[in-house]
Amino acid sequence: MSQSNSSKSIKTGLYAAVVVFLAYTMIFGYRKTFTVATFDGLTIAGYSYKTILVISQMLGYLLAKFYGIKYISELKRTGRGKIILLLTGISWLSWLLFALVPMRYNIVFLFVNGFPLGMLWGVVFSYVEGRRSTDFIGAALAVSFIFASGFVKSVGAWLMTEFGISEFWMPFYTGLVFCAPLALFVWLMEKIPQPNEEDIEYRAERVAMTADDRKKFIRDFLGGIIACVLIYCFATIFRDIRDNFSAEMWKEMGFFNQPAIFSKTETPITIIVLVMIGSMVMIKNNFIALRTAHWFIVVGFVIAGVSTLIFKYNQLSPIAWMTLVGLGLYMVYIPFNAIFFDRLISTFKYASNVGFLIYIADAFGYVGSIGVLLSKEIFKVKLNWVTFFSSSVMILSVVGVLLTFYSLYYFSRKYRKNINN
Predict the structure, then answer these.
(1) Which residues span the domain enclosing 301?
(2) Structural domain count, the chain
(3) Which pLDDT value is given to residue 380?
(4) Beta-strand (E) ranges in 265-361?
(5) Whole-angstrom Cα distance, residue 195 to residue 128?
(6) In sequence order, which residues have a C-beta less than 8 Å from that of residue 4 and are 6 or more positions away?
(7) CATH code for position 170
(8) Could you tell me the pTM of the whole model?
(9) Are 135 and 339 in contact (CB under 8 A)?
(10) What is the pLDDT of residue 366?
(11) Which of 97, 105, 127, 418 counts the highest number of beta carbons within 10 A?
(12) pLDDT tens digit string along 332-350?
């Protein structure tokens, strides 16, 4: 590759990384701000009102992920900016109706909010996959989950504490803050160039998939896909509990009415994960990168489990624990959203797309998250959120390590078989 082409590729990668990071951060402003509110004392039929809200939004996400297996895998590369603005607009309108409709009946609007937002990751990632710089760009997009989660909660908490906006109106006004920047960054995403011939040669062409294409892919990689889905399911459960109920956990640990606390833990995680995953762009061999991603995930599970064990013995402060367990969980979660599936496709040279695989994993991940929340409410588990979360992390981290080793063995054997043939 000539020096001029290399320089152009680097500039495109940096531009795309910044734009998709900022765009998805703005999108998060329409999704997660309500979780900063605790809705203390509010119940419906004896169940926690906030938990019902979280489950309602997750159900919307869940259905979007199952629908997205088909929709995102067949997505064309035109009109994507309009799709993003339309879906985000629907989610914002749902927050207005959530504030206007009485409490018992406004639960449905969390479902309405979740469904369109659940489609957006696949649309945004389609701008960046299949490039030599996808590892770095994908890492930037994926860590926006971490940064945005803390940032938008801080904005929501600030609106409530500084302007006296109620818990019910806060999500709508937060959306108002983000609407103009979102439109700008979507417009800038539309300016990202398509992958060139060298990108396609190195990473395999990314194309819309037919039903037969999807069936063949699953048939050829069934064992590995099952392992990856289970790993991702565990990561999603952990991440969602920490993300949706961090306000409750901070309150239980003695931190209350401190809006900056959310950004204080998430910002260092964002930087560390971005550097670690983004640096994998230096690994040219796709199979070595795929193998490295497995080890990255193993280390993440170990960090989450060990830090939680130390915290339970009162040898780690709450802030250090929330930061370390978050780092570990995102080291598991982020590779699947940034590099794992992209390198998998590149290793085996399948004409397909990442959206298909991540939406399979996401769909079952949300099944797990909803199942955990429903179990806690239906069976009236009396543990507080810190105890419930920490106990679960230690157990499932061990299972996660074992599954990751199996996945590594499966894809390594598959790769050697392909080479021999």
Answers:
(1) 3-420
(2) 1
(3) 65
(4) none
(5) 8
(6) none
(7) 1.20.1250.20
(8) 0.81
(9) yes
(10) 84
(11) 127
(12) 988 887 789 989 998 998 8
